[in-house]
Design goal:
This protein is an alpha/beta fold. The chain has 13 helices and 14 strands. Helix 1 packs across helix 10 and helix 8 runs parallel beside helix 9. The structure holds 3-isopropylmalic acid and manganese (II) ion (MN).
Length: 370
């Protein structure tokens, strides 16, 4: 298969985690005889420095010619005191989502048995948690009119059209019907008109998906249930802001925000990115966890319908973690740096072996990277 892939490392640890994702892409290309052409572009603070804007025109034009985007992270504390949100590095990502029409952000939340000790929740509560969040990504309060009034007040307007709700709800229903058949719509329908519209629109669609049980939760209750009964969830559907908040909460219960990937899909080139941010304090230290990015690569491969390739990537990641190897914040037996993790997964893929064989195989073959 031939694919053009846009690589947008962005800021902070974005650079180093994406580098590991690229190693994995290259290893998959090598083992399965695919041609992945990589095209690098600037975004975020990195682009502001060079071109004065977080999403330069050539970056947008470039990614539009590609089949997928691998994205690192954007954000730099240098821009924290900007007087308007419009010039912050984060705009690079927000504009990209908007311009490409990437209306659905998909965030799987799964726990790894060998990492249950990292969760702030009790093991029995968190074991086998497996749900997916479908977050609307190009509408709502993020993109509504915003500004300041003469009296010093500020406003952000939330608007949703039924069309914007239907197109993401369709994806969420489909996903739920392939999984355990439960879809939870999260809003604040007791207070917000837009949430009420979400509820009406999604309810009308439910009859087309008879195998899916549709439930409604208010956002405050959902935030509580994610901590109390995370196993209850299968597919969660929500608007842009609520989805942003719930997906960070959901990642926290797994114990490491460094493990969770995401896909943003819709009309244009799909974008795959770790859900963590640019973590500026760790930038350049080679300590960041590249697994969320590597698993985002697996989501990209799934998107290309390269299911075997995607499952090889996931298998190798699980294999490494189960053998007690991970970045420092995972507190496993063997601490690897960001680049060592990438090197290891790359070798496990190209050389067709599992760490289960023996650590001595590992010692001989990969001695240089340990
Ligand atoms: C995310 C991030 C972004 C968002 C930021 C960087 C604008 O938090 O992808 O969840 O709020 O959507
Ligand atoms: Mn977020």
């Amino acid at each position: 298969m031939e694919k053009k892939i846009a690589i947008l490392p962005g800021d902070g640890i974005g650079q180093e985690v994406v580098e590991q994702g690229v190693k994995v892409l290259e290893a998959i290309a090598d083992r399965f005889h695919h041609q992945f052409q990589l095209h690098y572009f600037d975004v975020g603070a990195a682009a502001i420095e060079k071109y004065g804007t977080p999403l330069p025109a050539h970056t947008l034009a470039g990614v539009q010619c590609c089949d997928a985007i691998l994205f690192g992270a954007v954000g730099d504390p240098k821009y924290d005191d900007q007087t308007t949100v419009q010039t912050r590095p984060e705009q690079g990502l927000l504009q990209l989502r908007k311009k490409l029409g990437l209306f659905a952000n998909i965030r799987p939340v799964r726990t790894v048995n060998s990492l249950l000790h990292l969760s702030p929740l009790k093991k029995e509560r968190i074991k086998n948690v497996d749900f997916i969040i479908y977050r609307e990504l190009t509408g709502g309060i993020y993109f509504g009119e915003k500004g300041r009034n003469a009296d010093g007040s500020a406003y952000d307007v939330t608007t949703y059209h039924p069309r914007e709700i239907e197109r993401i709800a369709r994806l969420a229903f489909k996903q739920a019907s392939k999984r355990r058949g439960k879809l939870t719509l999260v809003g604040k329908a007791s207070v917000l008109e837009t949430s009420l519209l979400w509820r009406e629109t999604v309810s009308k669609m439910a009859k087309n998906y008879p195998t899916v049980k549709l439930e409604f939760l208010n956002a405050d209750n959902a935030a509580m249930q994610i901590v109390l009964n995370p196993k209850e969830f299968d597919v969660i559907l929500s608007d842009n802001l609520i989805g942003d908040i719930l997906s960070d909460e959901a990642s926290a219960i797994t114990g490491s925000i460094g493990l969770l990937p995401s896909a943003s899909v819709g009309d244009g080139t799909p974008l795959f990115e770790p859900i963590h941010g640019s973590f500026p304090r760790a930038a350049g230290e080679d300590i960041a966890n590249p697994i969320a990015t590597i698993l985002s690569v697996a989501m990209m491969l799934d998107h290309f319908k390269l299911y075997e390739e995607a499952s090889v990537v996931r298998h190798k990641v699980r294999n490494a973690l189960e053998k007690g190897i991970g970045t420092a914040e995972l507190h496993l037996d063997t601490v690897y740096s960001c680049s060592q993790m990438g090197d290891m997964i790359e070798h496990l893929i190209t050389d067709h072996y599992d760490l289960a064989h023996s650590i001595s195989v590992m010692g001989e073959r990969v001695a240089t990277i340990i």
